[in-house]
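SUBJECT: A protein chain and its fold
Encoding: whole-number codes for local backbone shapes
RECORD BEGINS BELOW THIS LINE
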Amino acid sequence: MTKNVAVIILNWNGEKLLREFLGSVVENTNPDIADVVVADNGSTDGSLAYVATTFPQVKIIRFAENYGYAEGYNRAIAQCADYRYCVLLNSDVQALPGWIEPLYDYLEKHQQVAACQPKLMSYTHPEMFEYAGASGGFIDCHGYPFCRGRVFDTVESDHGQYDDVTSIFWATGAALFIRSEVYLRAGGLDKDFFAHMEEIDLCWRIHRMGYDIKVIPQSSVRHLGGGSLPASNPRKTYLNFRNNLFLLYKNVPLRDNRRLLFIRRLYDTLALLMFLIKFDYQNVMAVFRAHRDFSKQCHRYSVPVDGENLLGRFPHSWRNIVVEYYLKGRKVF
């Protein structure tokens, strides 16, 4: 019998992470409402043998090749369309007891909410929020993402200050609970982003469809994070700068699009100069390549001609966190 939720863990040669984290997901995920699924991107290590031997109750989806994060999840969720909900759960997430019930119960009772996330805590420092989503994501007036519990590189300790259920602009892709039908109708994750901010882009499209997104802090998981690329890695700099421009280009209506992108290019130029002052030439080139490739590749997207600019409607979207953080010294949400 098909259950209501598929908890999907995307894997590629991640046997070490599966050995460390999969047990907590299996143990703490209510089997009455959810199946745990490992979707494998053509791994060549012992991942699938480990899963099949140690956790025979876990379902396995096998892909013949590595489709990457976004397309891997798109294909996996398409195969799990019989489940009413899917959870995109990173392979480096430790599930805690009772984590899935608050997410499931909330969406069952609130049909206008398409997606939600738990409170995301650090695996290595459990008293701290985790960078990738903390207690819910927002976006400022120039398109910079930040969270309740994390602004730029400043991460807060959790003292219960963000334990209320609230509407958010974006939910973390590390633990994204979402209606399967809405995910597929919205077009899923944009595979051209490759990595970073693809969940923000998806959430933006879901908002444009008229749905709400929530954080449910009564659910909590711990995320290792930083397993793919450290914050200072030029590849990560490149993807963040390029994808943020893509994010704005494809989601902001035409009347505001050019002005906003012009301002963002000015801010990015300041960031490039800061890297230059620090003699960080690799990140200088990363920012340069991000803007060059955005100019070459943005034609693949169409700019919304009309409609509401959601940057003006959501709580905290009026804020300029660059000015607040660097000039006014406001380091927390």
